[in-house]
């Protein structure tokens, strides 16, 4: 076996996952990824914005008109300085909306993160301007954001930067009427230097965004949908890309850390700076969210910097008996924090903190090893939207997504197909989730007419380097992907050349990790497949329904490369919806009468159906088990997402998720849990057992279990005992004749009883039941914390009535807001902020936020005609 040993470490994170649940009373920083010292460098600019959107061009501006002023924002990320864009000497023509004197008092008041499209309404026409692919939500148009902030004379002597974690898209920023710069790619995080335009007193920021139709294959979101920061530092400071810590010779006994600190002297007026650089390494104390015991100190360095220059300072140190970072559940995600101090004349002038982890990575021809232990990739793809919250980032929503995936046994996420919010990586670091970090869905050739291909040539280098420098400290990031199903796969030499250019950039910025591209059509013999380090295959590896797949051909061409599925399955289903007849096979392409109902736009939840380029989970498992060298998979997808409602384009959201858009697990969840998390005593029966129209008809019953044998009983009568063989992943009784009553399954493992499950024909719906995610009934009044409240329609005995679909009305008393409601039904066109939401398969969800700076309690009430209402009290902490 050939295992090139490659190690790496890394960055910003907060408290360990467990603390997220136990620490409901912790100060805000514990959940937000911010930490006190770092906070002193940067303050949140999320509150107090004015906003206006227009579907016409209200200002006669466009990216192409102002491009000369925008391109220089990329210069720090373009290595060849002869290619740097020169900023025109003058400002562009006066832009009224950017002027401090402009009256925005009639504009909407709001706080960030903000997605202007998510409130809807959904476009329902078949020829809508934004169709199913992009989620039928009004992302298009020009959005302006304005807010003031004040600066004092001390600030005027500093460097002042605006850090935007993500703005969709074509951002352009003015300060006090001066165009500062911008960044077109809506998924990028970027920094702009406000210093030259800063005034003592009031300052007016104005940000213009512009979203075109046909700019994405899925829902992109719209607006400043991630956090925004104002960073104020001494003119000599740790630069934007901060520090880079990598590790080598990692073992339980010791590890060597290599540190690069980027020091910048941005002083105007030619002041040379003599700077001492020191960095201490501490254990990151998960109990307090602060630096704990100091374990090492990098040798200090002195650097003399002329004004306007930046320089990297390198040093190394060995840590004894390191507490290694690794993915859960096999390992522990231990973190460290490095505290870098810059001193001039003995005075500390800047302090910069880097949270990181120590671990080794080996990419072998039989899989991925972390700290020497093989970790099979049990991964999922995730788009960046958070369902009914849209693209507006919420750390609570992201944590809910990751932790439900972890419960299923998922240990890895591919950020399909673009850079995630920085806090998503902080969560992954602290929760022990592996990340395949991906940047592009298109290169030079378009997938849709207004996508990234329009700006690829101007921006690919800056976007790629900025992404790598931002994220390379995170220990959770184990693979870089610089593309997904790009058309260049089939482009012969020229496609391979583009790939090589991107590959070279990754190598320059991070020699410690390997790369991939999701390849759906490149063959093993193509020039393209030879460029990437790791063979990442979309569907072709395991093969679509009825085919054997291309794992063997890639294996024989690349016997020493790691091979895995960057996308697998693309199975589709609608939670709680079972259609008959049920296919006899283990995987079928969906069509009417075969798992699909194009009129109702539902796909059967028997979990045997897929798109015709994909396959069911069961079929994928067979292929993987036959190719034991395969390193694992990233299922398409973990959660449903907005847009791409294949196979029914008139719907609003996807059918691919293992978990639906509202966060309710589909049956498939238990199929994956049975395989991925086999120590959980899973036994899950499908379908539900309320079929008044099917009495006497054949109604197949399937069971997902981590047991190896199972016996099913209908009203106490055995339907047979079955054993799983090597290529079956479910128990199926396909000849059960429906009669109301009780289905009960007993599963066994190695002959002993393992897990039981029961499904009953329920009585009439009589009442509503409310519950909170993880039974968390405390909410912080920080203006961002969210409570996820589920409502179930039940009978007298508390059984969820599986076909209940009546309208539920949510209301609230106390200082809170119902931000969104949902039910996971991809065809439901009620706007997300609606307080009325139909139950879908017996369930619905309301998301509640406490108003900032309030105390007391919030009472959430759910009512529905003819049903007993329910109330739940949230305590504001
Ligand atoms: C893939 C693509 C994904 C998604 C998926 C749906 O080809 O990479 O973005 O579209 O198909 O099956």
UniProtKB/TrEMBL annotation:
Residues 775-872 form the Glycoside hydrolase family domain. Keywords: Glycosidase, Hydrolase, Signal. Residues 367-521 form the Glycoside hydrolase family 2 catalytic domain. It comes from the Eukaryota. InterPro entries: Beta-gal/glucu_dom_sf (IPR036156), Beta-mannosidase-like_N2 (IPR054593), DUF4982 (IPR032311), Galactose-bd-like_sf (IPR008979), GalB-like (IPR048229), GH (IPR017853), GH2_Domain-Containing (IPR051913), Glyco_hydro2_dom5 (IPR040605). One of its GO terms (molecular function) is hydrolase activity, hydrolyzing O-glycosyl compounds. Residues 696-755 form the DUF4982 domain. Residues 144-215 form the Beta-mannosidase-like galactose-binding domain. GO terms for biological process: carbohydrate metabolic process. Pfam families: DUF4982, Glyco_hydro2_C5, Glyco_hydro_2, Glyco_hydro_2_C, Glyco_hydro_2_N2. Residues 1-30 form the signal peptide. Residues 248-359 form the Glycoside hydrolase family 2 immunoglobulin-like beta-sandwich domain. Belongs to the glycosyl hydrolase 2 family. PANTHER family: BETA-GALACTOSIDASE (PTHR42732), BETA-MANNOSIDASE (PTHR42732:SF1). This is Glycoside hydrolase superfamily. It comes from Lasiosphaeria hispida. The lineage of its organism: Eukaryota, Fungi, Dikarya, Ascomycota, Pezizomycotina.
């Amino acid at each position: 076996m050939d295992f090139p040993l490659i190690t790496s470490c890394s960055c910003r994170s907060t408290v360990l996952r467990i603390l997220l649940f136990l620490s409901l009373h912790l100060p805000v920083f514990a959940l937000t990824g911010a930490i006190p010292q770092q906070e002193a460098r940067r303050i949140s600019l999320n509150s107090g914005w004015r906003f206006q959107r227009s579907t016409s061009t209200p200002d006669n501006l466009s990216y192409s008109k102002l491009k000369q002023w925008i391109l220089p924002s990329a210069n720090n990320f373009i290595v060849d300085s002869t290619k740097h864009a020169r900023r025109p000497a003058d400002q562009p023509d006066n832009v009224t909306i950017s002027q401090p004197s402009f009256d925005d008092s009639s504009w909407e008041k709001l706080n960030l993160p903000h997605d202007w499209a998510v409130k809807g309404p959904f476009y329902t026409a078949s020829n809508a301007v934004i169709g199913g692919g992009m989620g039928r939500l009004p992302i298009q148009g020009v959005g302006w954001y304005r807010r003031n902030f004040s600066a004092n004379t001390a600030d005027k002597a500093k460097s002042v930067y605006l850090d935007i974690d993500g703005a969709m898209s074509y951002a352009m920023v003015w300060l006090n009427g001066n165009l500062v710069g911008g960044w077109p790619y809506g998924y990028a995080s970027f920094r702009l230097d406000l210093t030259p335009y800063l005034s003592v007193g009031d300052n007016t920021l104005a940000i213009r965004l512009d979203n075109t139709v046909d700019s994405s294959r899925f829902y992109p979101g719209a607006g400043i949908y991630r956090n925004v920061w104002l960073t104020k530092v001494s003119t000599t400071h740790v630069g934007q890309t901060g520090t880079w810590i990598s590790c080598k010779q990692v073992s339980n006994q010791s590890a060597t850390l290599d540190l690069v600190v980027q020091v910048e002297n941005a002083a105007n007026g030619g002041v040379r700076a003599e700077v001492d650089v020191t960095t201490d390494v501490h254990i990151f104390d998960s109990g307090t969210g602060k630096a704990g015991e100091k374990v090492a100190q990098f040798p200090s360095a002195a650097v003399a910097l002329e004004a306007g220059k930046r320089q990297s300072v390198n040093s190394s140190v060995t840590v004894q008996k390191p507490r290694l970072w690794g993915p859960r559940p096999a390992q522990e995600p231990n973190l460290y924090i490095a505290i870098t101090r810059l001193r001039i004349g003995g005075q500390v002038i800047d302090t910069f903190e880097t949270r990181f982890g120590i671990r080794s990575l080996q990419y072998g021809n039989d899989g991925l090893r972390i700290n020497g232990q093989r970790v099979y990739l049990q991964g999922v793809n995730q788009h960046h939207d958070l369902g009914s919250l849209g693209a507006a980032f919420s750390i609570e929503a992201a944590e809910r997504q990751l932790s439900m995936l972890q419960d299923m046994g998922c240990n890895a996420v591919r950020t399909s197909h673009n850079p995630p919010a920085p806090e998503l990586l902080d969560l992954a670091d602290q929760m022990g989730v592996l990340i395949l970090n991906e940047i592009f869905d298109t290169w030079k050739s378009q997938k849709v007419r207004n996508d990234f291909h329009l700006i690829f040539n101007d921006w690919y280098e800056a976007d790629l380097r900025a992404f790598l420098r931002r994220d390379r400290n995170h220990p959770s990031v184990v693979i870089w992907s610089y593309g997904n199903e790009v058309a260049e796969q089939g482009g012969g030499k020229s496609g391979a050349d583009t790939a090589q250019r991107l590959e070279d950039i990754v190598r320059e910025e991070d020699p410690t990790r390997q790369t991939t591209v999701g390849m759906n059509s490149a063959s093993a013999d193509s020039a393209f497949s030879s460029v990437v380090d790791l063979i990442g295959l979309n569907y072709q590896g395991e093969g679509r329904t009825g085919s054997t797949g291309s794992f063997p051909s890639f294996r024989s061409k690349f016997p020493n490369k790691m091979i895995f599925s960057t996308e697998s399955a693309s199975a589709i289903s609608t939670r709680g919806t079972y259609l008959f007849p049920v296919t006899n096979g283990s995987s079928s392409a969906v069509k009417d009468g075969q798992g699909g109902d194009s009129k109702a736009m539902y796909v059967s939840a028997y979990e045997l159906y897929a798109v015709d380029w994909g396959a069911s989970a069961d079929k994928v498992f067979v292929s993987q088990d036959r190719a034991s060298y395969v390193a694992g998979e990233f299922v398409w997808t973990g959660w449903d997402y907005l847009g791409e409602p294949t196979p029914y384009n008139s719907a609003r959201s996807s059918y691919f998720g293992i978990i639906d858009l509202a966060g309710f697990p589909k049956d498939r969840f238990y199929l994956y849990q049975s395989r991925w998390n086999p120590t959980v005593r899973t036994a899950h029966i499908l379908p539900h057992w309320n079929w008044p129209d099917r009495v006497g008809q054949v109604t197949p019953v399937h069971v997902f279990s981590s047991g190896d044998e199972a016996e099913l009983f209908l009203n106490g009568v055995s339907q047979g005992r079955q054993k799983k063989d090597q290529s079956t992943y479910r128990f199926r009784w396909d000849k059960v004749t429906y009669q109301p009553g009780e289905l009960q399954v007993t599963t066994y493992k190695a002959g002993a009883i393992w897990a039981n499950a029961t499904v009953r024909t329920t009585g009439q719906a009589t009442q509503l039941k409310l519950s909170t995610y993880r039974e968390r009934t405390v909410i912080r009044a920080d203006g961002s914390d969210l409570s996820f409240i589920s409502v179930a329609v039940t009978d007298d005995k508390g059984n969820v009535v599986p076909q209940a679909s009546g309208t539920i009305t949510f209301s609230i008393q106390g200082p809170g807001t119902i931000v969104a409601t949902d039910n996971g039904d991809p065809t439901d066109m009620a706007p997300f902020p609606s307080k009325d939401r139909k139950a879908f398969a017996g369930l619905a969800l309301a998301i509640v936020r406490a108003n900032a700076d309030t105390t007391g309690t919030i009472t959430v009430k759910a009512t529905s005609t003819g049903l007993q209402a329910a109330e739940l009290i949230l305590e504001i902490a």
